[in-house]
Amino acid sequence: MTALDEIHQFLPCPTPDAWIAEAAKAENLSLLLTDHAHCEKKAASTAMTLMFRYVDRPDLLNKMSRLAREELIHFEQVLAIMQARGMTYGHMSPSRYAAGLRTHVRTSEPGRLIDVLIIGALIEARSCERFARLAPYLDDELAKFYRSLLKSEARHYQDYLFLAQEYAGEPIDARVAFFCEVERGLIEMPDTEFRFHSGLPDFS
């Protein structure tokens, strides 16, 4: 089973075809890339935050340090693609996706850490799935770039899930299932703004 197969089994639902159709529109490319860049920067920030908060966990420090470096490289790569195409990177309101997941994070430890790590696994897995789904609908340069991200994004998902299991000290299947259902709702419910992790397009 490939890493992408594993991700398809982990995620509660596939990305809706309607989102793929919206993302593939030429007029949405700048928006897609801008939000993609923001996502990479936020992913690096999340990893760094975990490193500062949990300084006594060597496995987490090593995995998050590598993850942060890779996400920042991806950020730089997206910026370079945008600049080469004459696109401007700027501020953008965040989608409800990550915030919707984090609403359910427990406040006491170790539950807080476990939940944040499970959410990290879901976000990385969904990103990987969308890169793979989008690639056939993009131009050759972007398709090649998105496919090149699959391996690292799949590893990031695995790292987050491994750490969640390691630090829980008990099975996390029920908690993973809970967040998967939250994620399903965010992906399948109508969304009024198009973003990299947005749900069904509903811009009427």
From TrEMBL:
GO terms for biological process: tRNA modification. Keywords: Oxidoreductase. It comes from the Bacteria. InterPro entries: Ferritin-like (IPR012347), Ferritin-like_SF (IPR009078), tRNA-Hydrxlase_MiaE (IPR010386). One of its GO terms (molecular function) is tRNA 2-(methylsulfanyl)-N(6)-isopentenyladenosine(37) hydroxylase activity. Its EC number is 1.-.-.-. This is tRNA-(Ms[2]io[6]A)-hydroxylase. It comes from Nitrincola lacisaponensis.
